[in-house]
Amino acid sequence: MNSLLKYISNTPQDKLDAGAISFLAGYENVKEVSPDIAESILNELIDQRTHLKLIASENFSSLRVQAAMGNLLTDKYAEGHPYHRFYAGCDNVDKIEAEAAGLACELFGAEYAYVQPHSGADANMVAFLSILVAKVEDPLMNALGADDVAKLSRSDFNKIREAYGTQKLLALDYYSGGHLTHGYRHNYSSILFDVYSYTVDKETKLLDLDVIRKQLHEVKPLVFLAGYSAYPRSINFAKLRELADEVGAVFMVDMAHFAGLVAGGVFSGDYNPVPFAHVVTSTTHKTLRGPRGGFILSTKEYKDYFDKGCPSFLGGPLPHVMAAKAVAFKEALTPQFKEYAANITKNSNTLSQALIRRGVNVLTGGTDNHLMLLDVQDTYGLTGRQGESALRASGFTLNRNALPFDENGPWYTSGLRIGTPAVTTLGMGDNEMELIADLIDNLLKNTKPVGTNRTAFETDPVVAEEVNEKVQELLLRFPLYPEIVI
After folding, report:
1. pLDDT digits (tens, 9 = 90+) for 131-180
2. Is the pTM of this model over 0.90?
3. Which is it for the CA torsion 436, 442, 443, 445, positive or negative?
4. Coil/strand/helix, residue 84
5. At what angle do helices 18-33 and 2-10 cross, to 10 degrees?
6. Least CB-packed of 139, 203, 263, 430 within 10 Å?
7. Structural domains for the chain
């Protein structure tokens, strides 16, 4: 128990943190059984303390959230939904899930919340299947005079299967910032639906609602999906709902990336999807700063369908993660979280403008949200893969990202995606964003591709060392989980 004893002995009694004690006690217990796993856990903490996290889809959850996730709740099966389970002994899970769902409704002003999905991809799958049941299966069942698909003949069931296969999805193209689950050919969503994609404008890299409206009327999809994983601007969801209504489409929004900005009131009015979408899906671990997981919000008409996430797609829910979601929702209901959410976008804007002033091609000329896209091929003659690797070697953690109409494809890419949720959690502000912009630009200006290999590069070693030293100095001023002494 060396780490725990060191922490307790070095910390005044009135400053002892229960979350830190829980982490260290857990680490010591794991170490007794598997030193290698314990070492990797500790090394991850060290890695995140020594690299500046600029991945737009990552954050740092609180130690309270982590403590709620690491406990014996993981031992319980609880298929079903609160107070309607297929296993006995779910009384405590019922209370936890009902609490988490109620907090989600309060936080987002939703009529209904389903907090079982293990991830955003799972949330999207449950949402797709539930919409199909509501809009395709149920009408066919009524026409057949049946009430249970399990009792249908093979020929009648095949009529439903065939009807499923003809339904259309219109969603944002992967290369324009859409997610894999929005109809990407290598993803299950492209098999489940007859997929059509809308794109950003080739010149402005922005969405054009007039073009989308025309495409909606041509396609007439069952589901019109909005949301993104790499689009740097806000979206007017009120207008998109009007477009969906024109063709009778179910309007679904994937707000996984910007859920924290909605919860914190940064995206409000027409830019808050919850009042306008029939169905909203999300993760809990990005801007919302919760555990790794997903959830769904919807109008009451879909309640009974989402409550059947098991057996439609999900197996046993994860009670320990639902407990952590409840804690995260509770944290997001505080005034401090609203301030945090505002600071995310403030930092994002400051960083993007600082990069632009240094001559970096930032797509769309900036950002309205938590992320920005850098064209490093155009600015520095590097692929995204080269830029990502060069920055990682000098203390940055971020990801390469395909840009709209990217000739380098999704593996090498021409771009980098940068986000500010994690550095904002650490407490950084305007001055630090200016410094980060300077360090990124300085490093990439001194990085050159090697030959025709789209992965090979070389960075001036003096510059690389200087940049890394400044990154470490910055991280020492804004330490991750300072409560944990190792």
Report:
1. 999 999 999 999 999 999 999 999 999 999 999 989 999 999 999 999 99
2. yes
3. positive
4. strand
5. 160
6. 203
7. 72-332 (3.40.640.10), 335-477 (3.90.1150.10)
